Amino acid sequence: MMLNAPGSDPASPVCSAKACRADAVWVLAWNNPKLHTPERRKTWLACEEHREHLSQFLGVRGFLKDVVTLDAWEASRPAERGEE
Ligand SMILES: [Zn+2]
Q1: Distance in angstroms (rounded) separating the CA atoms of residues 60 and 12
Q2: How far does the centroid of ligand 1 lie from the alpha carbon of residue 15, in Å?
Q3: Model pLDDT, residue 77
Q4: Which of 10, 15, 47, 63 has its CA 20 to 30 A from that of 28?
Q5: If we measure between CA atoms, which residue out of 30, 20, 19, 13 comes closest to residue 64?
Q6: Dist CA 63 CA 61 (whole Å)
Q7: Which residues contact 19 (CB under 8 A, 6 or more apart)?
Q8: Which 8-state DSSP code applies to residue 14?
Q9: How far is the CA of 14 from the centre of ligand 1 (A)?
Q10: Does pTM top 0.85 for this prediction?
Q11: Cβ contact 11:47 at 8 Å
C-alpha cells in the first residue's frame, strides 16, 4: 500500500466553512451552553482563510472556547477526534 501524497489523502481534514475544500489548519473548539455540558467541546476545522470568519461566528454567540492548530489539537487528544 502506497502513502497518499500530501493533500490527496481522503481522510485529511478539510475546512468546515461552506463550500471550502482547503486543508484544515486550525481547530475551533466551541460549546453551546444551551445544548452542551460545560466540559463538552464541539469542533470546527478551518483553513487559514476561514479561521477568522468562523472564529467570529462562534465568538459573537459566546460559543468559542479555544483556537489551536490542528497539529496541537491532535497531539493533545490522541484518542479522540471530537466529531460526532
Ligand atoms: Zn476554508
Answers
A1: 29
A2: 5
A3: 77
A4: 10
A5: 30
A6: 5
A7: none
A8: B
A9: 8
A10: no
A11: no
Ion ligand 1 contact residues with beta carbon within 5 A: 15, 17, 20, 22, 47, 50
Q: Helix (H, G, I), strand (E, B), or coil: what is residue 41?
A: coil
| pLDDT, tens only, 2-46 | 554 554 455 789 999 999 999 999 999 999 999 999 999 999 999
Q: What spacing in Å lies between the alpha carbon of 13 and ligand 1's midpoint?
A: 11
67 CA from centroid of ligand 1 (Å): 15
Ligand 1 centroid–CA 1 distance in Å is 30
Ligand 1 centroid to 39 CA: how many Å? 27
C-alpha cell at 29: 473548539
**Residue type, position 78, single letter:** P
